[in-house]
Amino acid sequence: MNQSSFGNWNQEPFYPMVSYIVPCYNNEPFVKECINSIKAQRTAYPNIEIIFVDDGSIDGSYEQAKENISDRDGQVIRLSKNTGVGHALNIGFSLAKGKYLCFFAADDVLLDPNKTVRQQNAMEETRCDLSYYLDWYQGETIETMRMTPSIWFYRYVPPVDYLLKHYLYMNNAMMYRYLLHNQPINSGSLMITREAYERFGEWNEQVLTTDYELLIRYCRDGAKFCQIKGAPMFYRMHKGQASHRDKEMRNGEKESRRLNL
Question: 44, 132, 147, 209: which could form a disulfide with 252 (CB 3.0–4.6 Å)?
Fold first, then answer.
């Protein structure tokens, strides 16, 4: 799709820019599909940029990103060594130009081309600081993926938590207590206003679970959360991802909670 087909795609206030920051470490097989799924969001929401931060990958992730992200799409940054997802995110967020900022992993896929426009509209209407979708799909492949309630909430979380998450409005005090006991939010569906990011702070580079730490801290400090029904993304499960490092993840979650008590 050429630029002329977007019309006045970069003119505010019709489409305030949304930045997708994509940190990556050794995700070569998945990079192209991830990038193309973000580009597909432009059908409904034209003003999107992609900030791809290669965190010292030793495979072909950087080359895949360079092939699939043009100067018009955004920019591709290559860090000289692996510094961790928190640092990569802070680099990407510092370079982003958008009014709205999204974190999206290089091994995941956006399934719903209307995800961005629905989320941006919800944030404008509610004047919230941060929004997220309630559900997502996950699995090793899109062909075998399942929605989260069938593999997470019904199996591991008491029904009261599922009902609380989906049907009851939670103020900050309730959400804060909930987050201290659970991580019910997939950070791949987060959208944060630039104003909130500058007010509540950047990603913590000292913990592996930097997304969980940010959510607890923002909630504790009074950020307004907005929940959106739907499952617009695929969270890919594979051996190379950080979430498979169970002991380190548990320690990261414990530290994230300790830092924000």
Answer: 209
